[in-house]
Amino acid sequence: MRTGKDVLGRAIAAQWRPVTAGSLMAAAHQAGEALVPVVVGVVIDQAVSGGDPGALVRWIAVLALVFVGLSFSFRFGSRAAERAAERAAHDLRIELTERVLDPRGGAETGRLPGALVSIATADAKRVGAVNIAVTAGTAAAAGLLVGAVALLWISVPLGLLVLLGAPPLLWLAHLLGRPLERRSAVEQERASHASGIAADLVAGLRVLKGIGAESAAVTRYRRTSRDSLAATLRAARAEAWHDGSVLALTGVFIAVVALVGGRLAAAGDISVGGLVAAVGLAQFLLTPLSIFSWVNTEFAQGRASAARVASVLSTPPTVTPGTGRAPAPVRGHVRMRGVAHAALRGVDLDVTPGELIGVVAPNPATATALLQCLGRDVDPVSGSIELDGVSLPSLEPGDLRAALLVAAHDAELFEGSLLDNVTAATDRTDVEPALTASGADEVARNLPQGTATVLAERGLTLSGGQRQRVALARALAADPPVLVLHDPTTAIDTVTETRIAAGIRKARRGRTTIVVATSPALLAETDRVVVVDGGVVTAEGTHADLMRDHETYRTTVSA
Amino acid sequence: MTVAGRPAAEPARELLPTATGARTRAAVGELLRPHRRLALGGFAVLVTATGVGLLTAPLLGHIIDLVAERRPADAITTPVILLVVIAIAQGVTTALGLSLVARLGESMLAGLRERFVERALHLPLDRVERAGIGDLTARVTGDVSVIAEAVRNALPELARSVLTIALTLVGLAVLDWRFLLAALLAAPIQFHTVRWYVRRAVPLYAAQRVAVGAQQQQLLGTVGGAATVRAFRLAGEHTGRVRQRSQAAVDLALRGIRLVSRFYARLNLAEFVGLTAVLVTGFLLVRNGSVSVGTASAAALYFHSLFNPINAALGLVDDAQAATAGLARLVGVADLPLPPEPHRPAEPADASIDAAGVGHAYVPGHQVLYDIDLGISAKELVALVGASGAGKTTLAKLVAGIHRPTNGAIALGGVDLGALDHATVRATVALITQEVHVFAGSLAEDLRLARPGATDGELRSALEHVGALAWAEALPDGLATVVGASGHRLTVAQAQQLALARIVLADPPIVILDEATAEAGSAGARALEAAAARAIEGRTALVVAHRLTQAAAADRVVVMHDGRIVEAGRHEDLVAADGRYAALWEAWSDQRRS
Prior knowledge:
Number of strands of chain A: 10
Order of helices and strands of chain A: HHHHHHHHEEEHEEHEHHHHEHEHEEHH
InterPro entries (chain B): AAA+_ATPase (IPR003593), ABC1_TM_dom (IPR011527), ABC1_TM_sf (IPR036640), ABC_transporter-like_ATP-bd (IPR003439), P-loop_NTPase (IPR027417), Type_1_exporter (IPR039421)
Subcellular location (chain B): Cell membrane
Number of helices of chain B: 22
Strand content of chain B: 5-15%
Shape of chain A: elongated
Distance between the termini of chain B: 31 Å
Shape of chain B: elongated
Structural class of chain A: alpha/beta
Helix content of chain A: 55-70%
Membrane topology (chain B): Multi-pass membrane protein
Oligomer: heterodimer
Structural class of chain B: alpha/beta
Strand content of chain A: 5-15%
Main location (chain B): membrane
GO molecular function (chain B): ATP binding
């Protein structure tokens, strides 16, 4: 079990080299920035006031060194920090992908794909960015230290004034900002609503056009847009006043430093150059201090994101995989005894090797439960499922799925050509028979580049019927010893469907095939059909017999 | 359902236009015009704020002079009080100026996005489809948010920075014109650096956006298809793909940071050159007695305080580039001409449909429809039947006026489609396709898209009419339930019922249904069929049907094959005629016969 803290800690620890290097260099950069006003003060003091050209050249050379130092340390420090952040995010992304794809499943339960992708991108990035916050925080501490030492060296009372005055000042600014920030977050959310609505209307453009609702939609959008504008303006106004107050506070602070420094200088306690440097440092020190509050926010966000990442990584698996190997070769004898899970209440079923069997479930939930059990997405609450006499839970998941493939109704196609998709799960190059049997050859013929056509947007540019045929071709091409097909032809017209049913029969000759469907065209091709109703097997026979004798079957199938 | 009927699958996309630089500037000018006063006011207030802020450095210089002249300590009290007054005045004016600038930017942005959406929604569908709907979506989300980001964050910062820089330079000149010359020594380096940077950054960031998009796509495919990946044991391959895409995005991001760090390193050089020049100038001027030490200090402080605004302004180059590119893409669409409307639009005489000699090709030379002659009289129900790829969907779209036929003519109510204005076409004929979309917002708002002024009672009766009232009222907040992408999820069948309810509300005399029931599964299909039958009652209807029970219930059946009408007639007559339809019907009912 992993917590958000572990995730965050590991993201930093695994990148300790670039984080350390980045911190050191960023610290050097901050120190350099702090030294610039100090050196300027010295130049005024030693060179400008005294009119000493030698001192001018010397101290300009020092200034040059400071600039070289701060420039290079920034350059390499920021690279190291960014590298640490990007690598940590990348590692998390891969780890999350592996967890989601884990054969034991479970990670995507209750999470929309979009939400998971957002965790693997936005949240992983935020966790990685904590590495930047670490280096920035270290650097700010270094800048603060150098500035403090310089100030105290110029004058102890002035140094104490700045060092003790700055934190309450920033705290005050923070207090001023907090209610505004909270309010602004709410307003910003409402403001972003407009863009969401616009995208939604564009996504539904065909539907809008279909009913001639374009003008109504524009009116609706304009209303949303005006609401958003009002919310944004409220947020912007709050932010502007916050910025203004911080500016005024800072100015007053500098005035106080000038007052105290001027009096000290007038009394001869510090030099004129010391006064210039102190004023410059007072301004400079506000930066590292504000970096601290930024670091704080970054860590808070990083922690929240890490918790989300951890919750995915630590999702309990839905099944415990076994380690047993499948018998070789697999004969394809599937045996279910008293299987109960969700809508199943004790299913007994024997599928003999090489059989083409139809399973009809009037209640779709029954079909889903059966498929989940066969694909080992879940283990039944009671009862057993065996493949060639070996119980499914004892098998290594990869081995099981190689032997028994469940081709789901909503199987996804992937980016790539039609042929890539069909050959995804097979080493064979000759997939012509699978293409023909599934009718995917016809789909290919209608595409601009045939089977080489890239299926844009994961096949969403194809029609439902075309997608189903490509998915079926992929399942047939995989040629597993046992194939379970779920509603493979619901979006395909009757004539084509009849041809596909015959194709399936031919392609699967001699191998076990279970077709879970209610389509008469498919069921007519099977050797035998089993009806699972109310969670148990209620009838069994050929399609023709059941059509004649079984009322429920007839109504289910001939809808 | 034909492949050709889905131009998105065609290889060459004709993206929507992008405006030229000149046109984009002109469009910004047009957006600015109604807010001229606001712009001037905001600008004036910010100038005041910046000017007030610049008084700080000479006052500090004055304090230094007082100290250097060994005046009594009390002499500095007055300038310090002035410093406090300045700080407060600067805070107030800055706040005011920033809110005015925000109001200006946001109002212009709202105006632009509204104009964009209005034009985008009114574009002819075939034009949008040639570009891919994704093109429009990317503009309305990505580009708008890039511009909003720029308006919200970059614009105020840029305005302040530029003003600070400009007025500080003026301030330097007031101290002594030679300080200004010294400070400007940094400018050529900065100018050259920005040019150097932009040349490299623009293509790099474009590549980075593409890589991040590809990574997103891959993750969506892999994660969205996790069940399929597991079933087919493709986990290794998919992890590899994600790794590769992610690595590519990481590599480009690191190249980006290398470029940025080199950019700032060069700006550091400019800072050093300018600062040294100002210090040396101060040294020389103090030595020859033209300025005091305090003035020289003020000049150095001025220049040092330029570091941040200069870096900020130059660092905003990226945002400005991205926003300009986005702006050009929005203006490009907002400027698209609408298809011409007829000079004297006619009104359809009745609810009949008449297609004469209609042929169509989405891509020249790739004909998908040939010589379609089809007359449908008012209130007739015609079913369109045929195998996938026969051209049914194309014919449906042509009749609905979505596409213009390549050959022949289609008339609604005796008037050619070309002689009807757009609004009349849309009020006359409605089209429902397999594509369902539930609009984000409340269920009532979704329905009101079809009839904006509809009362709750009308909404309820429309839902009732299609058998959807029961589940709609059972939703957590009834008709006020938020549905769509981020709300309550409706099933496909419910979404289709909603589409039918919209038809009832829109109440067009002609309705075209294209396989509106295909995805609902067999039990759902029957319920939807009944709902569809009620929705089209009393209207002229052309129904594309895969389920032949729909065909059997129609007044007339039209059978299509390879882009041609091959049979037409009453169901009984066609079955008796023993042709193609009879064979289809035979196969259909055979499987359903005991």
